[in-house]
Design brief:
single chain; 211 residues; Rossmann fold; Arc Repressor Mutant, subunit A; 2 domains; six-stranded parallel β-sheet; elongated
C-alpha cells in the first residue's frame, strides 16, 4: 500500500526536496502546505496517511497546528521534521500526539526509513533527541533496585514497559510515555510475560516486587 503524505514547511525549496525524495521512495505526496493553517485545511480535505510537519512557520506554527491536524484527520500519523532540538518543542509535540520527532540534519535515507516505520506503527525519533525523551520518561520511573532475574531476562524497552506497569499506567498511557503504538506496547507485554514465565501482568509485577 502506498502511503499518502502531506508535507508542511514554509520553505519552498525544502518542500520540493522532500517531495522529490519521498516520491522517489514510493510515497504518494498528495499536497504541500506552507503554514499550519494550510496544513489543517489540506489534512481535512485529503485525509492523508502521514503528515510531515515543520514547527517554525508563519500564521500558525507546527505545535499549534498539530492537534488541529489530528482532529481534522484522525487516522493520519503526524511526524515533526524540524531543526529544533529544544526539549520544550519535543515534549510539546509528543503530548500533542506526534508519532515522530525528526531533525532536518538526518540523512535523507534515514528520514525515509523512519517514515516507513511510522507507517507500520513504529515511532520515529532522531538519536540526538532520543536521550532527552528517555530521561523524561525515566524520571521517577527507575527503581533503586531491580531483581537480577528480571533485569537479565528483559530488554531495556521491556523493562521500561514493566516499570510503567508498576506505576499503574494503562496501555494507552505507556504508549504515550514511550512514544510507541499501543500495539507495540501489547507486543512488549506479551514478550516480557513469556520471558518471565508468567501469564498475567499481576504475576509479572510480583516478579518485579518480590516479597
Amino acid at each position: 500500500m502506498t502511503e499518502r503524505i502531506l508535507i508542511v514547511d514554509d520553505h519552498p525549496l525544502t518542500r520540493d526536496a522532500l517531495s522529490g525524495l519521498l516520491e522517489q521512495n514510493g510515497f504518494d505526496v498528495v499536497a504541500e502546505a506552507a503554514s499550519g493553517i494550510e496544513a489543517v485545511d489540506a489534512a481535512a480535505e485529503l485525509q492523508p496517511d502521514l503528515v510531515l510537519l515543520d514547527l517554525t512557520m508563519p500564521h500558525m506554527d507546527g505545535l499549534t497546528a498539530l492537534p488541529k491536524i489530528r482532529a481534522a484527520a484522525p487516522d493520519a500519523e503526524v511526524v515533526v521534521l524540524t531543526a529544533s532540538e529544544d526539549e520544550t518543542n519535543l515534549l510539546g509535540a509528543i503530548r500533542a500526539g506526534a508519532a515522530g520527532y525528526l531533525l532536518k540534519s538526518e540523512p535523507p535515507e534515514q528520514i525515509v526509513s523512519f517514515l516507513r516505520g511510522v507507517a507500520k506503527g513504529e515511532a520515529a525519533l532522531s538519536g540526538a533527541v532520543a536521550r532527552r525523551l528517555l530521561d523524561q520518561v525515566r524520571e521517577g520511573d527507575v527503581r533503586p533496585t531491580v531483581p537480577d532475574a528480571v533485569a537479565h531476562a528483559l530488554t531495556a524497552r521491556e523493562l521500561e514497559v514493566l516499570l510503567l506497569l508498576d506505576r499503574h499506567l494503562g496501555t494507552d498511557e505507556i504508549a504515550q510515555r514511550l512514544f510507541i503504538s499501543e500495539h507495540t506496547v501489547r507486543s512488549h507485554v506479551k514478550s516480557l510475560l513469556a520471558k518471565l514465565g508468567v501469564s498475567s501482568r499481576r504475576e509479572a509485577l510480583e516478579k518485579l516486587n518480590p516479597r
